[in-house]
User: What shape does this take?
Amino acid sequence: MNFLDAPQLAVIGSFTLISKNNSVSNIDLISFSENKTFLVTYVVDGDTLQIETGEKIRLICIDTPEKNEEYYFEAKDYLEELVLGKKIELIKDISEKDRYGRLLRYVFVDGKFVNEKVVERGYAKAYWYKPDTKFCQEIQEAENYAKERDRGIWEDENEEDNSEEESEIETENNSEINTQENCQCVSDLDCPDFSSHSEAQECYEYCFKITEKDFHRLDREKDGLACENS
Assistant: This one.
């Protein structure tokens, strides 16, 4: 029998996790081998490592960048810093292995929940993959923590989100400027004065916002649509 699959359970420690509102919760560490630890001999990437038995361990509930993506090396280096050459404890969830034959486990070392730590540093995203989700909520909160602080991968993603938002605002502002130039709420305009229904609608909405009425009387049907029959 593989000693990683030994049926006897043993509580062999307690670890602190980040939880909502930066409070903390304790998880009793339950190992599927009695008081067993395993030496990490190699780190494959940011979410996969190898132990002294030659078996590979895939960290549950996290997903780190691939080799051709940003922060791949940072994630791998950080996992090496946490576990390489050290004894780790493992917790199984529901599944034994993934389709690549890697053991699916939560990993603990020196009182730290490794899966959570990689995400908290901003080098991985929370990855909910049923049925192995026992501690995914704690890991999700670590992701939120990293996002709020623009850590790692979230620095670039938050910058992209802000850039898109700024672009949308600029587009809206330019549209309003064009409407101001083509639509003055001081002289009367009629539907034939507009080149399209959308242009008439923009003028109607602009003047309504300025004067709080249908200044040009473009909405004959009183349904909020300008020049709909023209």
Observations:
- Confidence is low (pLDDT under 50) at residues 1-14, 18-26, 28-34.
